[in-house]
Amino acid sequence: MIRKTIVIVNKLGMHARPATLIVKAASKYRSDFRIIKEDMEINGKSIMGVMTLAAEYGSELELVADGVDEEFLIKEIAELFASKFGEE
Amino acid sequence: MKRLKGIPVSAGVAIGYAKIIEREKLHIDRKSIPKNMIEAELKRFKDDVDFVVKEIEHLISNYSYSKENEEILTAQKMILRDPEFSKRVTALISEELDNLENAISTYFTEITDIFNNMDNEFFSQRLSDFEDVAYRLLSHTLKKRKNLLNKLDETSILIMENISPSFVTKVFEKKIQGLCTEKGSKNSHSSIIARSMNLPTLVSTIELLENIEENQQVIIDGNKGELIISPTKSILEKYEKIFQQENAEKEKLQKLVNIESKTIDNRKIKLMSNIEIPEEIDQVLKYKSEGIGLFRTEFLFIDIDELPSEEEQYKIYRKIAEKCYPEPVIIRTIDVGGDKFSKILNITHEENPNLGWRGIRISLENIPIFRQQVRAILRANIKGNVKIMFPMISCVEEIIEAKKIIEECKKDLKKEKVRYVEDIEIGAMIEIPSAVITSDTLAEECDFLSIGTNDLVQYILAVDRDNESISKYYKPCDPSVIRSIKLTVDNAHEKGIKVAICGEMASEKIFVKLLVGLGIDELSVSPGRLLIVKNEILKCDKKNAEKLVAKILRKNTSDEIYQLLIK
Fold first, then answer.
1. What pLDDT digit, counting tens, does each position of B133-142 carry?
2. What pLDDT was estimated at residue B390?
């Protein structure tokens, strides 16, 4: 299992498009993927889960992947966040 | 008899019977199932979801021209494929013994509650997309999905609360008489499509749904903006007469589709279309327009939260270019006023936006945005039938600057080994008086010129065309306007390039002869006006038109000119 903490750096926060991108990327991998924000924990492969996080600019998220390809999953998702989902 | 006021979207009278299409309230039967039914119910769940996903995929590949639309549909598909959704519904069925519709509706209610409790506006806006997909699935599961279109035929006037652009296209295939909605605005995408189809349409019809019943006889008066419900005999007779006249006219025009647009004395006048959104392409092809003389790209930039990418623009431009091939497509770069752009570009309020930051001025000061658009256009020109046009040109430096950027983009594309065609024609919109006066210089730098008469009239006469209190000063047949067109045409022809008119003047019957006489090479009008204008061109003799122009040029007032034109 790997954990990684990231901060939302795109101004608009995690609206529908980033949520779609995250779920699409995560769903390619076999590992379980969860996202934790404060006291909320959701399935990172669930679009409704990711959207209900309502994560805004500046919020801190913990990414947790568990499975055979966990490293690759975390790497790709972290890069997505860092790239600001292609905005700006 | 009742009369309701509405906003007319396209002119014309329609008489028919009201067919109301609205979302039914779904009744969920909260039953539990016996244990031996669990397997069957789970199988039904899988099948229903698969069915609706397929349906959405069909919509994505056939009806989604905009990125926003595609994103919504993709998100809806993901909602149906959401592992948590499947987990929750499976649990409700196998543990709580809920029947399928009960389980689905429980899940959707739970999610809706979470959404409603969020204070983030962004997400509450998404609720309607979510409800839409919930409705789609549930109505399928309940086998409530009748084919709504079945009840429509050529006697129908469709009544809806609101209508989506793809639905307008579908109902048009049913040959309905007219369309009337309670919501909607004159320039929504749905309205633009209805207009290019010449479908009599009213939107924003006040208290429509509470006043109308299925199968009532109704009249749409698209000229006055009125819906008449259960007309009296004399009113009906009056409208039947108008309808027959209009219909005879329509049928006559329809016969012109395959006739080439030229004058009696065999002078070619190229007749092209102005389009605002890609969906209008169907009408462009149907009326055999000779290409697109003005493809406005503002729809990509207005009311958006983020800029369209180069890739997204490229795909749309390419689709249109391919559909029109071998006819040309003239793509105009962004022509919005700063006010509409404010969400993205941080623009402060302008005292006088018409004389402010708009058109090419915005492009040349936002080079990354401009380059993206130019690259997308260059890449879309795979078959060489795409041209590029710049709006609001006020001096030759702007054209030179814009051309420099085109060359830079070409160099980059070459370096990146991206496919594009080296030769692309470049044109300037002539709509500012300074551009008219220096049109000789502009003609030297351009491959064609296109006169935007709406703005030209407004700038030459200093009349705001949206200000009703001064509307009598907005005179397209003022000598100053006509001399400006003449000067532009003469300068362009001297340099051996063509001139088009893409403003409203080109689509007014009375001006066609004038424009032909002035030597205009191409007219570009909205698809719904193509045949009307073609009819005028066919009736026109160029030699006579030139004589008329000679007479007009000697007149000093717009009144005298108007009298000559309507003779």
1. 888 888 888 8
2. 98
